[in-house]
Design brief:
binds magnesium ion, about 35% helix, binds guanosine-5'-diphosphate, about 200 residues, seven-stranded mixed beta sheet, Rossmann fold, 5 helices
Length: about 200
């Protein structure tokens, strides 16, 4: 059974000091608005409405916490990169997100969800730059892979892999893995779930 199947919404936080206690094990999902992050969370947890999916970008502007069990949580970070977000809100998250990524002790790994048609945007790179120095693993889901042919998907996968290696390979010991994903076609679920499981249950 998928570990995330039991995930339940706990709380939304707007400020760093509203976060639940920094204890146990936490994995966070980051990504551009509309990349397919909430859909990926729903797909991986095998629940239809755990995270809020929207046709309109920019709706999730809070840090949403989901409990998996007593000491494990999943975190849906506010989507970034949506032009219509008011400047004050954008500035707020530009301060709060790096702080969360750099200071949260219980954070064991980061999943970055990228639309395969638009991978590694400037803001995705900023997330990598903020988190990579912590030497904790990063896993990238290239989602909406149903939108490209198999050949084009695989080519994008290897291009992103190369770029990551080139840019961060020598800099950090961080493990950074990448896979194709589709919430629509339910592709890549097993690989993603086993990665998440290896972070949350390292001894199993
Ligand atoms: N074709 C396709 N569309 C997707 C996929 N994942 C999400 N979407 C669509 O992309 C839009 C944004 O999805 P959402 O999960 O809310 O993105 P978020 O803003 O990153 O949380 C919605 O219209 C989804 O139905 C996918 O794997 N394939
Ligand atoms: Mg969302």
């Amino acid at each position: 059974m998928a570990l995330l199947q039991n995930a339940k919404f706990i709380i939304s936080a707007n400020h760093f000091n509203e976060l639940p206690e920094d204890a146990g094990y936490e994995i966070a999902f980051a990504g551009r608005s509309n990349a397919g992050k909430s859909s990926a969370i729903n797909t991986l947890s095998n629940q239809n409405r755990l995270a809020y999916v929207s046709k309109q970008p920019g709706r999730t502007q809070l840090i949403n916490f989901f409990k998996i069990d007593n000491d494990k949580s999943l975190v849906d970070l506010p989507g970034y990169g949506y032009a219509k977000v008011p400047t004050n809100i954008r500035n707020h998250w530009q301060r709060t997100l790096p702080r969360y990524l750099q200071e949260r002790q219980c954070l064991v790994g980061l999943i970055i969800v990228m639309d395969i048609r638009r991978p590694l945007t400037e803001l995705d790179i900023r997330m990598l730059d903020w988190f990579a120095p912590r030497q904790k693993p990063i896993h990238i889901l290239l989602t909406k892979s149903d939108k490209l042919s198999r050949e084009k998907s695989l080519r994008t996968l290897s291009e992103v892999q190369d770029k990551i290696k080139e840019q961060w390979g020598d800099l950090y010991q961080t493990e950074c893995t990448i896979q194709l994903f589709s919430s629509l076609k339910k592709k890549g679920i097993e690989d993603a779930n086993s990665k998440i499981q290896s972070w949350l249950l390292p001894n199993k």
